[in-house]
Amino acid sequence: QVQLQESGPGLVKPSQTLSLTCTVSGASITTDYLYWSWIRQPPGKGLEWMGFIRYSGSADYSPSLKSRTSISRDTSKNQFTLQLSSVTPEDTAVYYCARAYDAEYDYWGQGTQVTVSS
Fold first, then answer.
1. pLDDT tens-digit map of 43-99
2. Burial class of 65 by CB neighbour count within 10 A (0 to 12, 13 to 18, 19+)
3. Distance of alpha carbon 36 from its chain centroid, rounded?
4. Which stretches of 1-118 are assigned E, i.e. beta strand?
5. For residues 30 and 76, what is the distance between their CA atoms, to the nearest angstrom?
6. I need a surface site. Which of 3, 44, 49, 105 has the fewest CB within 10 A?
7. In the prediction, which pLDDT does 102 show?
8. How far apart are CA 118 and CA 102, in angstroms?
9. Would you state the pLDDT for residue 100?
């Protein structure tokens, strides 16, 4: 059974860097053709794809967030991490990690609320 679990602080101050980790069990993040994504949902809005890291270790980002986003991984811990810099209250959202295979998201974490506030 594949499971994803987000972890990180629930409160971040404006201008700081938000850092979240997704711990994966039941699958290896280096398995061919798997993509590991970060997706968020601000209050009252739809889902927003932020970026992913491929099985190969390379990453792609949403153009609107590219300048502030970095996704990396620790293969020894089977984890991947999101960093979002210079956060503002508009970055307040529920953040999800998810696995994509064959262009479909097949496994999701439960989501973690992150609030940006001083």
1. 999 999 999 999 999 999 999 999 999 999 999 999 999 999 999 999 999 999 999
2. middle
3. 8
4. 3-7, 11-12, 18-25, 34-41, 48-54, 59-61, 69-74, 79-84, 93-101, 104-108, 112-116
5. 10
6. 44
7. 87
8. 41
9. 95
Determine the length of the chain: 118
Residues 5 and 31: their CA atoms lie apart, in Å, by 18
Structure-token match 């811990």, residue found: 77
Are 33 and 93 spatial neighbours (Cβ–Cβ below 8 Å)?
no
- The pLDDT of residue 103 is above 90: no
Give the per-residue pLDDT at 92: 98
| Inter-residue contact 61 to 69 (CB < 8 Å) | yes
Amino acid at 15: S
Both tokens assigned to 42: 């601000």
Find tokens 């629930």 and name the residue: 10
